[in-house]
Amino acid sequence: MFIRILSISRRTDIPAFYGQWFIKRVRAGWFAVPNPFNAKQVSRIELRDGQLIADLARMAGELCFEIQGCAETIDLRLWGVRPGKCIDNDLMRRVFGLAAPARKDRSQRRVCGCIESRDIDMYDSCTFGCAYCYATRSFATARRHRQAHDPASESLLGRYRAPPATSTGKAGAARVPVQGDLFG
């Protein structure tokens, strides 16, 4: 079987900077690639329908991994990629034996398959440094937040205090940050 390997990060980081273009070209089934030393010489790099996706799914399967789509508007199952969910009730049932309700999270994109959940993380807290990250506006800020993180705090960052639980076990509506002791 012929497998075409595409390098998408040797001369630039296509996923980080040109992801939309890359997906459009994969859907088109070919790429126009100018010779880096002679821009008048352009190669047409063709993909069979779904070749890249199917090859990746097959290779992942050989390694006992599975590739899943995330909020895709096209059906990738034909190429071995099933719709995935970051917050996945089926996975929770299989792995932990939990019967999580299968209600779609209405606060997510229309095609997102995630079930209802509550984020407990905070923006500008991840220090991985991914160039495409929407949740970290400043990696310098994220590093400062990480250094200041207190494992004993009620909140991930800062010293936010939750209102006391009511008799129903639910917290009150007010979520006001509480200033820490100046000399504590």
Any descriptors?
disordered C terminus, two-stranded antiparallel sheet, 4 strands, 184 residues, extended, 24% helix, alpha+beta, single chain, DUF1848, 5 helices, DUF1848 domain-containing protein, two-stranded parallel ribbon
Textual characterization of the structure:
InterPro entries: DUF1848. Residues 150-173 are annotated as: Disordered. The structure is a single chain. With 184 residues, the chain is an alpha+beta fold. Among the domains are: 14-67, no CATH class; 120-154, no CATH class. It is built from five helices and four strands. The strands form two sheets. Strands 1-2 form a two-stranded antiparallel sheet. It has a two-stranded parallel sheet with strand order 3-4. The longest helix is centred in the first third of the chain and has 12 residues, at 51-62. The protein is extended. The N and C termini lie far apart (67 Å).
- Overall 3D shape: extended
Sheet bearing the most strands, described? 2 strands, antiparallel
Range of strand content:
5-15%
Provide the structure class: alpha+beta
What is the share of helical residues?
10-25%
Radius of gyration: 23 Å
Uncertain spans? 173-184
The number of E-state strands comes to: 4
Largest sheet strand order: 1-2
What's the N-to-C terminus distance? 67 Å
